[in-house]
Amino acid sequence: MADLNLTPYEDIYSEIKETLLLSRNQAYSAVNFAMVQAYWQIGRIIVEHEQNGNARADYGKSVLQELSSRLTKDFGKGFSVRTLQQMKKFYVMFPNTNALRSQLTWTHYRFALPTAEELQREIEIERKRIEEHEG
Fold it and tell me: What whole-number distance in Å separates Cα of residue 9 and Cα of residue 102?
């Protein structure tokens, strides 16, 4: 009998359920994009720090190791030296924060980094080839 009493409320329930699911998805997307922006900022901070005359390889590696250790202690997993290097590449490959898209996750950008790097390398090779041909 209880099932028969729910029938008149099915439309209301469905509408509420749809609203909650939509809101959850919007919240997830907003949080995800905020983290993408945070990773971009982390990359920017590290790159700008290195460009202030501290870009020696040994120095840079020790800084990343120290940052990784401290960030992992304070914030948990997700801040390995490799991930921090990816954040640096992310900033370098996408220097304009307006180019970031809220529809893409950090995973999407991470997978695109090697591709973007390869494309940049190919463009540079082609540019040099053209310069040599014209010169």
Answer: 36
pLDDT tens per residue across span 85-110: 999 999 988 888 888 998 899 988 88
Is-contact 32 106, C-beta < 8 A? yes
Cα–Cα–Cα angle for 121, 115, 57, nearest 5°?
60
pTM of the model as a whole: 0.72
**Token pair recorded at residue 13:** 């329930």
